[in-house]
Amino acid sequence: MATTTIAPPKRRTRTTALRWIAAAFTLVVLVIAGFGLWIYVTERAELPQVDGSIAVNGLSGPVTVIRDKLGVPHIRASTYEDLYFAQGFVTAQDRLWQMDASRRYAAGELSELLGPSLLPHDRRQRYLQIRAACERAAAQLEPQQHHMLEAYARGVNAFIERTRDHLPLEFRLLHYRPAPWRVEDSLLIGANMAQMLNTQYDLELKREKVMRHLNAQQIADLYPTTSWRDLPPAQQANPSVNEEAPMKQNPDREEEDEEGGAKVHTSELLPAFDPGCEMCVPGSNNWVVSGEHTASGKPLLANDMHLGHSIPDIWYEAHLTKGDGLQYDVAGVTLPGLPFVIVGHNRRIAWGFTNLGPDVQDLFIEQFNSAGQVATPRDWQAPQRVHEVIHVKGKPDEAFEVIVTRHGPIITPIVPGETRQLALQWTIYDGTVLGVPFREINSAQNWQEFRAAFSKFAGPSQNVVYADVDGHIGYQATGKIPIRASGDGLSPQSGADAEHDWTGYVPFDQLPSVYDPPSGILATANGRITPNGYTHLLANNWESPYRQSRIFHLLDEGEQFKPADMLAIQTDITSELERFFCDRFVYAIDHAKNVTPRVKQAAETMRGWDGRMEKNSAAASLAFWSRWNLGRILLLPKLGDDLMNYDWGLRSPALENIVTHKLLRWLPSGYSSYDDVLVAAVQKAVDSKRAPKDLSTWRWGNQFPIEVQHPVLGSIPVLSRFSGTGSHLQSGSGSTVKQVGADFGPSERLTVDFSNLDHSTLNIVIGQSGHLLSPHYKDQFAAWYGESTFLLLFSEAAVNAAAEHRLTLEPLR
Q: Which terminus has fewer CB within 10 Å in the chain: N or C?
């Protein structure tokens, strides 16, 4: 009798399934391998030629490009035109996609490449009229500046033309080709920096929302414009002058005032309070010491500008030499897309920047009639109407109209919840503000030529420290800063009259300046730079003074400084802010009754802490998060939801003032004393979900780790493992000299040694190249993270001896 066999078909089914799985797996592997091979081949093909010779159209003579072990180009040409042409060509070799992305970022043209998610950014840039401002500025450039920017653009375009068949990987992944480079595009790069450093209009609107909850005294408490810790350069020059006496401090009593505590209770559901925003707003440091304080007897100048991290780096190192170099021989950091050296030194002088942070933006409430005209002090006038079209990848174009009044563009559509017709006045809308007098700055030979060059620098306003080979040091404030008919620019004003209009700019010779101070020390770190009694209003919203104070005192206490000592100060991680509050937390806990065991453990952990924000420190975590909760407990009862809008550079000193004076007007309901509030702040910190069970294991470095990733390559799983830095714990904080946050930190570290310029040092964060397979893609990160640096070789002999590659750019015959 026949029987039915069941088992074999099951085996065949299982075998078939396994075969399909194996085939699918193999196919995936092959696809990944094929994609990886394509990436490798593409990247290899796009690596720049760094040896031999290249014939290019647009040169009048040969140009030598020597690259050292870090890929830093040392460019030597016979004329300025050839020098800047070569700078454009060489920078494009390493950073072409970054340059193109940067001009698109400024102009509001990213949606065309990346799709609708970038529309909010592009709308903002179009309403701000950034490209229009740059086009006006290009038309008003001094002829010499325009000529040099044209030479740079020709160099960039020569590289684009040469590489059309093997463009950088990002262009291929995004399926587009770069347009030719123009003079206006270089100004867009400058506008990016101006927008990053000098945007205040949003703070005015946030301040409006906070002020509605407060009386005049409370507003003064929360929005101070000075601190007893301030050290303006004029005071540094004469340290014996006490511009502002420290506040009285009486830890034994609360000061009486006209108000009691508020009756509103805190709620953990309301927006989080950002403690002074030190961890989200980058600042910068610069200083200079005379030979009196150095081992060599010659000045040392140091600069570390803190900006947002990116891959590629925001800076590109370069060394530019014209002819025999006697007139023009300069090295330092450049901005990809702009010629010249932005910060660095030549054979005789050196300079370094920090952002001055002036108020160069005002909001005006415009009145329109039914005919669409806008009110002016004389009559009704028709505004300008600009038609904007944003191309969007995969979607229809978006078109809209931007209305521009005598003050500037109406930006109401990009201000959520705003109904008033707000016009933005901004210095970059003045066509003379985006000039680039860096050739004169790069070639200045002494203090007088240096100041004459910077008198033409319109912005973004900077604090510039200076040193020279003859032993002189100095400080100069720069940039065009408006003078108002009345008012302080802190809130929107009527645009129909002229009461708050700008009447001009602060004259250059009236900006703060110091030369060869008796102290032999000058330092800035975004803090207040105007002395008491200064005539003009430069800024209201200075940054917190803790970094500047710490730098000055470290310099004032030391002697016989060497370049390595400058790096040690640049990487200092002591927070005077956190140490101030830490001592008060411990004192309050020691004198409190019925505190919990965890709060007692917190006090023991913080007791005697030296203020170092070291990545493995539990005390640093406890001090920081206790202060964070202290701010919430004190301010939330009065500000409610608008606590999230409390955004002021000096708000940590404001909190310090409130606690030091123990102001009753800020003591919340339910607390009998400030010691009770301090203990409660620590309790909330140790009870939070972020606090570990064992407080001794609370590592500060876990709070804000650094991870830098390429914006395009990092979005591709196959590449992301290689295209970024990976995650690393950080020491330092927003209030330490080594100021760090999750996405910003020192963008470069420079020290210039006038005893021997070849002993000067410089490093950027990631590396010189934007090409993934280049050895210089991220070869500087380990040194940056490990707080070491590299020599910035300068003399012809030293550069030649260290040459790794030598390329000659030749005229096309």
A: N
